[in-house]
Design goal:
Rossmann fold, Dehydroquinate synthase-like, alpha domain, 2 domains, three-stranded mixed sheet, 14 helices, 48% helix, 17% strand, globular
């Protein structure tokens, strides 16, 4: 599969990507190499990685706990301390092997260690393959508030090896599918239709198209001043719900994709209210998403807390909540506003 060229780095695919990785690392003559993994990827993905990556350099493995709740400054400090104790310097390389938490946190760790060292992303979940590993966003959460601390920093390369998807549960595959649905609704409705019409679809077929869409958007707007905001469709309400469930002792935490799926239903409803997106299309989106994800259990009693988390969305300006909404499929509008009552109506629509 043809390499996708991002602004300053390539995205390589499948087995031949490892030869590209080996050649690159050999040419750069790094002083040391560090591999960042979590509990899951150490067990499930590290063996395949080691079978395919050949280097004469010694490589140190740094392991962190798995889960969104560990995507925080405390974990970063632990990784920085480990790298320091193991002799990392400005000519070191950090390779991230994992999902969105590993790629986001690992990129942030590398970009700030000694004012920046090289890093390479090897995403192992569908979510990180089609979203987190590409585009140069790095960051961590502040408490349960998503991605509040971070910076834009590009990796040296990204390796997309769909064989790692075999290590995932069906729930994790569904989580990553939400981001592909987002690309379908905003840029290429064929992606959404393929998912909706073919329940036995090999999702690997859609990874390449998804990465291509995201890369084209990022090339046009690398630091999210304009069109890159479209990649937040479903994420404004979705992130608020994800944070609320993460922080609640009475709720089981949602995957990122489950929360974004709710957000896409709600923000499709707002698209009808504010931009007159055809209601039959809103209904189609809701029904398709509910068929894939089921209905998440919350009630109107939870609304006030969800609305409170919305106030902290990093896209807000002057206290105003910003949405990406749809005039229709493949036709979006940036920087839209909705009243609190309209947002509550959208939650009611999801639950109805």
């Amino acid at each position: 599969m043809k390499t996708i060229q991002a602004a300053t780095y390539p995205v390589h695919f499948y087995d031949e990507a490892y030869q590209k990785l080996t050649d690159f690392v050999t040419s750069k003559n790094y002083s040391s190499i560090f591999l960042l993994v979590d509990d899951n990827t150490l067990d499930c993905c590290y063996p395949r990685f080691m079978q395919n990556f050949a280097t004469n350099n010694s490589m140190e493995v740094i392991q962190i706990d798995a889960g969104e709740e560990f995507k925080n400054l405390e974990t970063c400090v632990g990784v920085w301390n480990a790298m320091t104790e193991l002799g990392a310097d400005r000519k070191s390389l950090l390779i991230t092997l994992g999902g969105g938490v590993i790629t986001d946190l690992g990129g942030f760790v590398a970009s700030t260690f000694k004012r920046g060292i090289d890093f390479i992303n090897i995403p192992t979940t569908l979510l990180s393959m089609v979203d987190a590993s590409v585009g140069g966003k790095t960051g961590i959460d502040l408490g349960v508030l998503k991605n509040q601390i971070g910076l834009f920093a590009n990796p040296e390369m990204v390796i997309v090896d769909p064989e790692y998807l075999h290590t995932l549960s069906a729930r994790e595959i569904r989580s990553g599918t939400a981001e592909i649905i987002k690309y379908g609704l905003t840029f290429d409705i064929k992606l959404f239709n393929e998912i909706n019409n073919n329940k036995k679809l090999d999702i690997k077929d859609l990874i390449y198209e998804s990465v291509k869409i995201k890369n084209n958007v990022v090339l046009e707007d690398p630091t999210e001043k304009n069109i890159r905001k479209v990649l937040n469709f479903g994420h404004t309400i979705g992130h608020a719900i994800e944070s609320y469930f993460l922080d609640s002792s009475e709720k089981e935490s949602l995957t990122h994709g489950e929360a974004i799926a709710i957000g896409m239903v709600c923000e499709s409803y707002l698209s009808n209210v504010i931009l007159n997106m055809p209601m039959e299309h809103v209904t189609f989106v809701k029904n398709a998403i509910l068929e894939i994800y089921g209905k998440i259990d919350f009630t109107s009693d939870d609304y006030s807390s969800i609305m409170e988390y919305l106030k902290h969305d990093k896209k807000n300006v002057n206290g105003e909540v910003n949405f990406v909404l749809l005039n229709d499929y493949e036709n979006f509008q940036l920087d839209c506003r909705a009243t609190p009552n309209e947002i509550i109506d959208s939650l009611n629509y999801y639950l109805a």
